[in-house]
Amino acid sequence: MGSKIEYVDSSQLYATNYVRNAKAVGVLWGIFTVCYAIIVAVAFITPEWIGDTTTSENPARFGLWNSCYFGNGVSSAVEDCQGKLDDLTSIPSTAIRVATIFGGVSVSIAIVIVVMLLLFFCLQSTTVYLICGWLHIFSAGCMITAIVVFPIGWDSPHIQRTCGPEARSYNLGDCSFRWAYLLAVIAGLDAFILSVLAFILATRHIKLQPEPLYASTLRKGEINSGYLGDSSASMAGSRKSLNLQPVMLMPQPMMDQDRFSEFSNRTGRSHKGAMYRPEYASSSIHNFQL
């Protein structure tokens, strides 16, 4: 018995490998989506966008919507943080208020995207990728807007008190950037990359090709490898495609006495042998069709 051999088309192998790799990339995309939501939330909450330097007179650090001052007339070890997220009037600069609104929208959209990952269990992956891709673009746009608008409010008096009178729009004066501002920039770029990846996964998503019919019917020795090609027409060389009927050859029974050649002429003596049988006179080999 020959072992079963499966013949798989090259397109079948490509589709299988692509779907497998697409699932792996999709899992990584979901992990980085969650990481993006965490990064953008940390950047929005932390008051570490800009801060004082060694030349600043009044040490302080400023976030998107809150400001923390050190040594507010009591002790240099006491930190006084001002600004409330639920009260935008506590933010002294109009430009920083606008940046806060866009930053909050970006964080909200990032959280919505994380929740929408659950839709993979009930909707087609193509639809979910498209929706999340557009939401990533909106979230990245809002975060980039907050990053660009925030420096316009650097001419505010509460920032000039720490950064000096030279501080104005897009000029920090005696202050410097902190890690949260750079983290916000990275988050914006990350969201654009995730959106592009989501669109690629959505538009290039293919289904697994059906298994060829001959993959489960062929066995070893049933097809001539010289006729095997990429098209199904090459299967004409297989034994199953030809309507052949096997024939069994039956040899003449062994006779020890009075044997004669099949190619010799009949004589009277040969017909009178003891082992002579009339039924074997016509032919020594009979073909039986199965």
TrEMBL record:
<dbReference type="GO" id="GO:0005886">
    <property type="term" value="C:plasma membrane"/>
</dbReference>
<feature type="transmembrane region" description="Helical">
    <location>
        <begin position="95"/>
        <end position="121"/>
    </location>
</feature>
<dbReference type="Pfam" id="PF10242">
    <property type="entry name" value="L_HMGIC_fpl"/>
</dbReference>
<protein>
    <submittedName>
        <fullName>Lipoma HMGIC fusion partner-like protein</fullName>
    </submittedName>
</protein>
<keyword id="KW-0812">Transmembrane</keyword>
<feature type="transmembrane region" description="Helical">
    <location>
        <begin position="24"/>
        <end position="45"/>
    </location>
</feature>
<dbReference type="GO" id="GO:0007605">
    <property type="term" value="P:sensory perception of sound"/>
</dbReference>
<feature type="transmembrane region" description="Helical">
    <location>
        <begin position="128"/>
        <end position="152"/>
    </location>
</feature>
<feature type="transmembrane region" description="Helical">
    <location>
        <begin position="179"/>
        <end position="202"/>
    </location>
</feature>
<keyword id="KW-0472">Membrane</keyword>
<keyword id="KW-1133">Transmembrane helix</keyword>
<dbReference type="InterPro" id="IPR019372">
    <property type="entry name" value="LHFPL"/>
</dbReference>
